[in-house]
Amino acid sequence: MPLIVQKFGGTSVGDLERIANVARRVASRKEQGNDMVVVVSAMAGETDRLINLAKKITPAPNERELDVLVSTGEQVTVALLAITLESMGYRAVSYCGWQVPIVTDDAYGAARIYDVPKEAMERDLAEGRIIIVAGFQGVDGKRNITTLGRGGSDTSAVAVAAALKADLCEIFTDVDGVYTTDPHITGKARKIGKIAYEEMLEMASLGAKVLYIRAVEFAMRYKVPLVVRSSFNDHEGTLVTEESSDMEKESVRAVTCNTKEAKITISGVEDKPGVASRIFSALADSHVVVDMIIQNSSAEGKTDISFTIPEADLGKGLEICRGIEEYFQAENINGCEDIAKVSIIGLGMRSYSGVAAKMFSALAREGINIEMISTSEIKISCVIRQKYAELAVRILHDVFELDKAT
Amino acid sequence: MPLIVQKFGGTSVGDLERIANVARRVASRKEQGNDMVVVVSAMAGETDRLINLAKKITPAPNERELDVLVSTGEQVTVALLAITLESMGYRAVSYCGWQVPIVTDDAYGAARIYDVPKEAMERDLAEGRIIIVAGFQGVDGKRNITTLGRGGSDTSAVAVAAALKADLCEIFTDVDGVYTTDPHITGKARKIGKIAYEEMLEMASLGAKVLYIRAVEFAMRYKVPLVVRSSFNDHEGTLVTEESSDMEKESVRAVTCNTKEAKITISGVEDKPGVASRIFSALADSHVVVDMIIQNSSAEGKTDISFTIPEADLGKGLEICRGIEEYFQAENINGCEDIAKVSIIGLGMRSYSGVAAKMFSALAREGINIEMISTSEIKISCVIRQKYAELAVRILHDVFELDKAT
Q1: Between chains, do B64 and A96 touch, taking CB under 8 Å as contact?
Q2: Beta pairing, strands A168-173 & A3-8
Q3: Best residue in A16, A50, A62, A66 to probe B by mutation, most B CBs within 10 Å?
Q4: Going edge to edge, which strands form the sheet with B137-139?
Q5: What is the pTM of this model?
Q6: Does the residue A282 lie in any domain?
C-alpha cells in the first residue's frame, strides 16, 4: 500500500473548521487506499503567544524550558486532529515528538534531527491507523524536549517520510507551489512543475520562502520525493525530486531576491596575511553568519574587504569589526542595509555558457550597478542597490524567458 | 538535607503574577536549606478551555487524545514556573509526567499511578536543582499520555513525595487547612491542627473537598506526612499523619455534609435470593457507583431496597433498574435528589460508646427524620431531607463541641 506523508502548517490548522478541512483531505487520501502519516504545526499564532508569555517573565527565558513551553502548541493540534478523524470514524493516533521519537541533539530552539526510529509508527500503520505527528519538536538523548527552529515542521515531515521510506511527502502551504520568481514582483511568474533538489536548495538559501533549507537538505540526502502545494485548493503543486532527463531544459530555472542582508565594507586595510582570518573568526565566534565575501587589492599595499551578513546582525557585525580594528588599521568601516541580492538558479547553467554575461549585460542595460558577485555551479548572485531589486527580478525573468514553459 | 514536596493548584498558578508568588515561596524554602520538588496544576480555567475545544468537535472525544490535549495545561505551567525560577537565579528543571516518569495504567482520564522511579529526580536534586513536576498526568507502559482525573495533582504530589521519601508534602490550596466542618455552614468551624490519615480519608469520601481521596490513600499507604495550607497566606495548616497519642482526644473530629447524592428506592420487591445481586451487578456494569444500601423486610414476602448513587447518575440508575424490573417485579421504583448525607467522623468513636445515640437524638430533637443510616468503625452517616442539611451540621458541630480545641 502506498505511504503518503502530508504536512500542514499553522495557517492550515488555524481553527477547528480548518482542522476539519485537513481531516477531510487526509481521509480522502486514506480512502484512495494509501497509508497516511500527517505532520502538523501549532495553530497559527499559538507559538508566538507562548513565546510572548515567557518573554513577559524575562527577556531571555531558559532555553530548555522555552522548548517545553512552545512544544505544547503542536501537541494541542495533533490531539484535535486525531479527535476529529476519530469522530469521522477513522482510527487515528497522535504522536508527540518524544513518542515517535524524533531524536535530536540538545540544541534547544534549533535542534537537528539525527534519528527517527520507525517501529512504533509501522505498527500503527499496519493496524490501519492514520498517524498524526507533532511537527517542529523532538527529544534529545536525555529525554529533554527540543524544538527544531524555523521551518521545523517541514523538516519533521521529510524526516518521518525518509524513515518510513514514504512514496511521497506533500507539504501543504498557502501558495500553489514553487514559482519561477515571487508572483508579487511579476505577474509573469510561472509555477514550476518539477524541480531538482539542488535547485530547490539554492532557491531556499537565496530567499525563496516556500520551503526551508533543512527540509530540502533532508529530502535530498534521503531522496524523499517532495510535493509543495496549496492547502486551500486542489491544484497540482511542484514536485521536488532528483534531477532527471524529463526536467525542463532551461539554463535558468528561477530568479530570487533577498533584501534581508546588509553589507559591511572595511576599506584601506593593510594587505598582510591573517587579516581576513582575524575578521571572519571574530564574526564566527559571535555566531554572525557571513554570506558573500569580496576582497579587492588596491594601491599602496592596501586592500578593501566587503561581505554580507543578515540585516539583523549589522549592528553586532560592525561592533565586532570596530572592536578588532587595531589589528588591521582600516581607513574606514562602513555598514549598509540598502542592498538586495538578486540571484538566478538552474542546473542547466552547468552546460550552458554565457549565462553570467547575459545576466550582467541585462542589468547594465537598465543602468543597475553590480556591487558584488558570487557564483556556484548552479547559481549566480549579484548585490545591487535595494531600490533596483524588483526591476532587476523582472528584467532577469524576461531575459531568461522564465514565463515560457518548455 | 530535608526534602519538601509542595503542590500548588490551578488558582495558585492562575497568572504570571501568581506564578511569581509561587516561585518566591519555593525559593524561600530552598534558601532555608531544603531540597525542593514542586508539583503544579494547569493554570485555572485552562483544562476546561481545552476540554471545551474538544467537545466542540464531538460530544465524546477519543479518550486517549483528550488526555494528550489536556496534559498540555500542566506542561505550560511547569515551563513558566521553571523559567521564573531560572530568571531569579535558581537552577530549575521541569518534568512532564512522562519525563519523571509517573507510570500509570492506561485508564485514560482516570489513570492510577503504579510506579514513580526516583532516579532522574534524585540526580537533579543532587545537582542542586529545584524540580517542577507536572501534576495530574502520567504515562502508561506503551508511552501513551494519561491523566489521573479529579484531584490528580494532589495524588501526583503525594506519589512523588512517597517515591523520594520526602520529609513533608505541602498541599497549597485556597483554604487555610482542614476544618471541623465547612466554615460556610457555621462560623464556629475550627481549623484542625493534626488529623489521622483514616479520619482524613473518611472526610474526603464523605464530601470534604479539601483533599482528594486517592491522594489521602496514597499518603496513608506510604506514610507521607501531608500538610494542607493556604497559598495566599503563611498560616499554619493542618498536618495529616499517622494516629499518635498527642492527637486531640475527642470522640468526634469533624462533621461533613454531601448534597450531591440521590436515592433510589425499589419498593414491594419479591423477597427472594439474587434480587440485590441482579440490581447491583447491573449498576456496576454501567459504572454507577453505589454508596449506601438498605434493605427492609416488609410484610407478605415483599421487601424494599434503597440505595444512594451520585446525583449525576440518577437518570442512568433509574433506567438500569427499570430495564431489569421484570426480574424482581417491584411495585414501585422511585428516584429522589432531595437528600443530604450528614456524617460525623473520628478515630475516638472506636473507644467511646454512645456516639451514635447522641447523634440520632440531637437530630430527633430538631424534628429531623433519618431516612438511612450507615456506619463504619470511625464514622456514622445519616441520610436526611436536603433542606435540613445545614441545620443538622450546625447541631452536630455544637453537640460534639467541635468548636473547642482540647
Answers
A1: no
A2: parallel
A3: A62
A4: B113-115, B103-104, B137-139, B145-147
A5: 0.86
A6: no
Inform me whether the pLDDT recorded for B299 exceeds 80. Answer: no
Kindly determine whether residue A76 and residue B69, on different chains, have CB atoms separated by under 8 Å. Answer: yes
Best probe of the A interface among B65, B72, B124, B143, by most A CBs < 10 A, is: B65
A33 torsion bin: left (phi>0), alpha (psi -120 to 50), beta (else)? left
Mean pLDDT, range B12-38, rounded to an integer: 97
- Cβ burial A328-340 (10 Å sphere, 16+ → b, else e): bebeebeebeebb
| DSSP state letter for B368 | P
Count of domains observed in chain A: 1
Residues 6 or more apart whose Cβ sits within 8 Å of residue A299: none
Flag whether pLDDT at A297 surpasses 80: no
For the stretch A127-157, pLDDT in tens is: 999 999 999 999 999 999 999 987 899 999 9
The pLDDT value recorded for residue B209 is: 78
Residue B289 resides in a domain: no
For residues B4 and B168, the answer to whether their CB atoms sit within 8 Å is yes
**Is B98 inside a domain boundary?**
yes
Does A362 reach chain B within 8 Å, measured CB to CB?
A: no
Within an 8 Å CB–CB cutoff, is residue B294 touching chain A?
no
B78: contact with A, CB 8 A cutoff:
yes
**Start-to-end C-alpha separation, chain A:** 34
Residue B355 in contact with residue B322, Cβ under 8 Å? no
As a residue count, chain A comes to: 406
A65 and B79 within 8 Å at the Cβ level: the answer is: yes
Nearest CA in chain B to A132: B65
**ipTM score:** 0.85
Q: What residue numbers bound the domain in which A14 lies?
A: 3-173
Q: Using CA of residue A62, residue A290, residue A171, residue A233, what is the dihedral sign?
A: positive
Instruction: Determine if the peptide bond prior to B2 is cis (ω within 30°).
Output: no
Tell me if A111 is assigned to some domain.
yes
If you measure CA to CA, which chain A residue comes closest to B97? Answer: A143
Q: Which residues pair with B15 in a beta bridge?
A: none
Q: What is the pLDDT of residue B250?
A: 65
Contact state of B56 with A16 under an 8 Å Cβ cutoff = yes
Rounded to 10 degrees, the C-alpha dihedral B238/B239/B245/B246 comes to -50
* CATH number, residue B21: 3.40.1160.10
Residues contacting residue B135 through CB under 8 Å, at least 6 positions apart: B7, B39, B40, B41, B74, B152, B153, B154, B156, B157
Q: Using the predicted structure, report yes or no on whether residue B298 has a pLDDT greater than 80.
A: no
Q: Does the CB of B32 have a partner CB in chain A at under 8 Å?
A: no
Strands across the sheet containing B226-230? B92-95, B130-134, B35-40, B3-8, B168-173, B226-230, B238-241, B194-196
The closest CB to that of A57, out of B50, B64, B87, belongs to B87
Point out the residue among A20, A61, A80 whose CB comes nearest to the CB of B83: A61
Give the sign of the dihedral formed by CA A379, CA A382, CA A383, CA A385: negative
Cβ contact, residue pair B96, A64, below 8 Å: no
Q: Which residue has the cell 508568588?
A: B21
Burial degree of B69 (CB within 10 A; 0-12, 13-18, 19+): buried
Tell me how far apart the alpha carbons of residues A179 and B386 are, in angstroms, rounded to a whole number.
Answer: 73
Q: Quick check: A80 contacting B, CB < 8 Å?
A: yes
In whole angstroms, what is the distance from residue A205 CA to residue A183 CA?
18
Q: Say if A169 is an interface residue toward chain B (CB within 8 Å).
A: no
B92 contact A CB<8A:
yes
Probe site for chain A from B40, B83, B123 (most A CB atoms < 10 A):
B83
Q: Which residues pair with A336 in a beta bridge?
A: A263
Q: Which three three-digit cell numbers place residue A318? A: 560592525
Position with higher pLDDT, B404 vs A71? A71
Query: Is B63 near chain A, with CB under 8 Å?
Result: no
A78 touches chain B (CB under 8 A): yes
